[in-house]
Amino acid sequence: MKDTFNFAFHGQEHMLKILHKAFNDPIYASKVVSMESCLFCHTDYYNQKIRKERIMTFFGITFRPMDTVKNPNYRLSKNMIDIMTDKVRRNPIDPKHTSHIKASIHCSFCRRRVAQRGTNPINFREYL
After folding, report:
1. How many structural domains comprise the chain?
2. How many helices (H) and strands (E) does the chain have?
3. What pLDDT, on the 0 to 100 scale, is given for residue 101?
């Protein structure tokens, strides 16, 4: 809803500025995109947990939102691994997703580096 509002009332240029800033600033990215959003598609466990627990209230009516992302079918249709259980492909580095999630290290801290094929490694201590 927030993205739709921003696009409708602020335009595409505003949305591109947000994306550019999020790409270059992992702290800002972690505020713009919830870790839940990443885990919803990339791991079956969190997909099922979120689908079971997610409840929305709209004008005093409480309901579960409808969506089409239901793992493992969705994840497999997009040729994505389960980051909690499957071996990470194309990367000699083991990202240890489980320990990062338990430590509340947001996905955005590594995501950009993954897109850059592991260049420019991150120093987590500068953000914690």
Report:
1. 2
2. 7, 2
3. 86
**pTM score > 0.90 for this model?**
no
Which residue has better confidence, 64 or 47? 47
Task: Report CA-CA distances (Å) from 27 to 3, 40, 58, 125.
Answer: 19, 20, 29, 13
Same domain, residue pair 26 and 55: no
The candidate with the shortest Cα–Cα distance to 111, out of 23, 40, 39, 36, is: 23
Same domain, residue pair 54 and 105: yes
Same domain, 22 and 40: no
Task: Tell me what the mean pLDDT of segment 102-124 comes to.
Answer: 67
Domain that holds residue 1: 1-32
Are residues 15 and 59 both part of a single domain?
Answer: no
SS3 category, 61:
strand
Q: How many other CB atoms are there within 10 angstroms of residue 38's CB atom?
A: 18
